[in-house]
Amino acid sequence: MALLDKKSKKAFSDPLMSNNPISLQVLGICSALAVTVKMDTAVVMSLAVIFVLAVSNTVIALLRKMIPGKVRIIVQLSVIASMVVFIDLVLKAYFYDMSKQLSVFVGLIITNCIIMGRAEAFAMQNGPWRSLLDGIGNGIGYGGILIGVAFFRELLGSGTFYGIQIIPDSFYAAGYENMGLMVLSPGAFIILGLIVWAQRLIANIEEE
Amino acid sequence: MEHYISLITKAVFVENILLAYFLGMCSFLAISKKVDTSIGLGFAVIFVLTITAPTNWAMNKYFLQDGALAWAGFPDVNLSFLNFIVFISVIAAMVQLVEMILDKFSPTLYQSLGIFLPLIAVNCSILGGSLFLVEREYTLLESTVFGFGSGLGWLLAIVSMASIRYRLRYSNVPSHLRGVGITMLLTGLLSIAFMSFGGIQL
To answer: Domain for residue A84, yes or no?
Structure first.
């Protein structure tokens, strides 16, 4: 079996666009929006989710024949929770400011429905290699949307990109103002709604 | 007393757990299609949040915090890194327990809440509530009030959204925007409406 046969490739590439976890499966929005005021928190959050998703998918795929059906949810939760504890401790040790900014939202990766959803729907039926690809694919699909939302919120709300000022001073002098709404929570909902709309238009997916 | 009223108002309106902190979005989007199911889920969330908040408070105070195990003779032990695992297990166990108790003593309530209870174990607002009360260092009573208030705020948000979506059936939404897209935009508007409570100080 080649490393990247057709099915494995599909496991990786589907969640990027045509089956995106956020905009099409509508999973994992809980922890997605609160960290999108600035690019840097969104990037760190995406990396954390990609890591947790990839590792937990692989571990669960390896264990799938040993997990009794009745207690599988608890087993999945403990695998995921251990990964999240690991991430939390790494952040606290090496990026203390970042971990303060993300506050409770690192912990909330545990209840991120994408991770449970992929464990239950994919890793319980497929081998570890394919599950790893599926995990990374879904993680990147999730991170893409997260970073997209953060990009617009930071650009429109603070006029910066990754902390670097983008909107020139002459604009402000001419009367341009940052959109305060974008920094607050409604901005996240509205930007995400528009991104979902755009993506469904491109992928041509309609509901009902 | 005033302190608790202010806390509850803050949790319901000013810092609504769903509209300001985005917690519990998954089930919010999935369930808000129908008014009666969203009322059912809303009450189940209030119930579970009010129970798990004080339980997790006690867990944190007597087992996890730095020096919390002094009563057992281990004053130097700090288990706070275990808090995620302990909280999520407490929540899962509580949900299971509530389900069994309801099944035994109140079959009618179980009938109406039953299908939602397993869903709640992975509802972010429950775990979020527990993590917030640790971060904000609430006392036992404050935690309980905060848990109840957050649940109430969640119920309010999901029931309003379900009623709006009910009316939405008669409007002509662009076909690609239907479903999640329009719900997100509406949640944004709802969230703006709730922001007008922002200045309230009791």
So the answer is: yes
Whether residue B179 and residue A208 make contact (CB cut-off 8 A), yes or no, is: yes
ipTM over 0.85: no
Q: Is A41 contained in some domain?
A: yes
Put simply, the chain A residues between 5 and 64 with a CB less than 8 A from any chain B CB are 23, 26-34
Domain contains A4:
no
Q: How many C-beta neighbours within 10 Å does residue B117 have?
A: 21
> A189 vs B178: CB contact, 8 Å cut-off?
no
Listed in sequence order, the residues at least 6 apart from B101 whose beta carbon sits closer than 8 Å to its beta carbon are none
A42: containing domain: 26-202
Tell me whether residue A2 is in a domain: no
Total domains in the fold of chain A: 1
**What is the C-alpha to C-alpha distance for residues A34 and A106, in angstroms, rounded to an integer?**
11
The residue among A23, A30, A102 with the most chain B CBs within 10 A of its CB, best to mutate, is A30
Q: What is the pLDDT of residues A79-128, one digit of tens each?
A: 888 999 999 899 989 988 888 888 778 888 888 778 888 888 888 888 88
Distances (CA, A) of A47 to A98, A145, A146: 13, 13, 11
Scanning A132-191 for CB atoms below 8 A from B yields 181, 184-190
Taking 3-state DSSP, the helix, strand and coil percentages for chain A, each rounded to the nearest 5, stand at 70, 0, 30
Closest residue of A to B123, CA-based? Answer: A111
Sign of CA dihedral A191, B49, B195, A104: negative
pTM of the complete model? 0.84
Residues of A in contact with B195 (CB under 8 A): 184-186
